[in-house]
Amino acid sequence: MSRMTQIKHELIRGLKWNIRFGEKKRDVKIAAHAEYLKNGGSKDGYLHPKGLFSYKSFDTYCSDVSTFARWAARNTNAKDSRSAKQYVHKYLKELIAKGRSAPTLKKYAHALARAYGCEVKDFGVELPKRRRADIKRSRNEVKSDARFKGERYERVREFARGIGARNDGLRKLQACDIRERKRGGYEVFLREKGGKERWARVLPDYEEIVLERFADARNRGENALLFERGELDHHVDVHACRAEYARMAYEQYEREGYETGRMYRCRNERYGDVYDKGVLIEVSRDLGHNRCDVVVNHYMK
Question: Helix, strand, or coil here: 113?
Fold first, then answer.
């Protein structure tokens, strides 16, 4: 067995100790918070849920540790994962020097920390902080977008703009996952990453498109998937559609009088931008988030 294969297999074995498939991360968080309160709300009472709750996260981390194993075999004398651990700080510093983004660096570091059963801080490297100005995803059109401009993909994007779903949510939608809202209009039931489930509002301007898709699926059965096999491509920039959904939803809730007068004021490069917190909370719920800053920094511009 080569050194690279030895390191890789041992790191993946370490990741397997973190597998918690079948559990819902949200339920684990709730239990952790309850334990925190049980301990009087002390700093040591709350333990952030650890583990890999989805197959996708596990596959991603396996790929990340494999990349490190390849680097360690080429650039060090490490014979196994234990002897390779001392070089993780050098590996991360090289990635920083190459200009890798803060989210990417964080992902690599967390993958290795999970495999080694330690904390990222134990590697002794200060990772760059994530800044909104550095986020490039879905900000501008990229070369690969040209592959997904046909009518087939536009229908998917139009539907995604109407409900604000992620790729996973679109893929799991069934004909029965829609109902009328108590406040008028419609909402759809989404099952997304980390076992999260939620009802998301259908924007009024997209009701016809959404209802038509659900009606077509219902003709195949109440539990029929809305999107048939091969109809969705994970390279389609659904995140950009979520951003459009967020901005349109904000305007819709404004028109419906959800303002509270409590304002969210942006800082740094967004200084001067102001949003109503009451409206942001409604948009945040529809997007499956719980924080106003996430909505503002990732979706509103």
Answer: helix
